[in-house]
Amino acid sequence: MLGLFLFGLALGIGSSIVPGPCGLAVLAAAQNHGKARAVATAIGAALGDAIYVSLGVAGAGRVFAAHPGIVPIIQGISGVMVIAYAAFMLTRPRVETGTAKLVRPGGAWRGTVVGLGLSLANPAVLVTWVILVGGVLGPEPTAGQVAAICGISLGTAVWFSGVGLLAERGLVARQALLGQITRVVCVLLIVYGGSLLGRGLGLLG
Q1: What is the total count of domains within the chain?
Q2: DSSP codes joined into one string, 101-139
Q3: Which of 29, 34, 73, 91 counts the highest number of beta carbons within 10 A?
Q4: Which residues of the chain are under the pLDDT cut of 50?
Q5: Alpha helices of the chain — where are they, by DSSP H?
Q6: What does the alpha-carbon distance between residue 205 and residue 192 come to, in Å, rounded to a whole number?
Q7: Is residue 205 part of a domain?
Q8: 90 in a domain, yes or no?
Q9: Which one-letter DSSP state was computed for residue 88?
């Protein structure tokens, strides 16, 4: 069971390193609302991963195998979502350091909802988790599956929380650099979203 937990932990961290909407939301939360909102957003993203991993373990792969036409539809929907969110983040007005750091009541809760919503609104993540864990965890006992899912969730939360805390800590000294990183991530996400949309429309192999 410990081995499956560590396996999940590594997967959670590794999958979170790749730039995505949730990572971008964590950066934005750190810049605009502070570390508490960033950590809450990270926790929401981890909950979304847990839900999709659970669906993968529960047999979503069999559904995809029986209905292969679902996958390109999911990819197309995800492509549109990713492009729209990245474009929004790329064009939104910049917030100067210290002007939006006041933590409003319910701010952490909103961060959790944003992280969870962005994670679930990108169903291509479900396809990824089915590929990564469906065959590996499917034959394992329930306790082992739960341990792996907990590890994945913890890995996601730890990585995104670390990114948010580092971003908030270095915001004053490196605000311009963080802004540039955010813009680069937005552009990469638009390219990624375009590739998902292309696959969904059958334009890419």
Answers
A1: 1
A2: ----TTHHHHHHHHHHHHHHT-THHHHHHIIIIIHHHTT
A3: 29
A4: 97-100
A5: 2-17, 21-33, 35-55, 61-66, 70-91, 107-120, 124-129, 135-137, 142-169, 175-200
A6: 14
A7: no
A8: yes
A9: H
Neighbouring C-beta atoms of residue 201, cutoff 10 Å: 12
Provide the Cα torsion 59, 197, 93, 175; round to 10°. Answer: 70
CA angle 140, 146, 147 (to 5 degrees): 90
Report pLDDT for 157: 95
pLDDT at 99: 47
Q: Residue 101: which residues within 8 A CB-CB, separation 6 or more?
A: 32, 33, 34
Task: Give the length of the chain.
Answer: 205
**Amino acid found at 22:** C
* Sequence letter at residue 77: I
Q: Which of 119, 187, 189, 109 shows the shortest CA–CA distance to 156?
A: 119
* pLDDT digits 0-9 by tens, 90-142: 887 665 544 445 555 566 788 899 999 988 887 777 777 777 776 678 778 88
CA 184 – CA 87 distance, rounded (Å): 12
Task: Report yes or no on 36 lying in a domain.
Answer: yes
pTM of the model: 0.79
Asked whether residue 30 is domain-assigned, the answer is yes
**Contact between 204 and 198 (Cβ < 8 Å):** yes
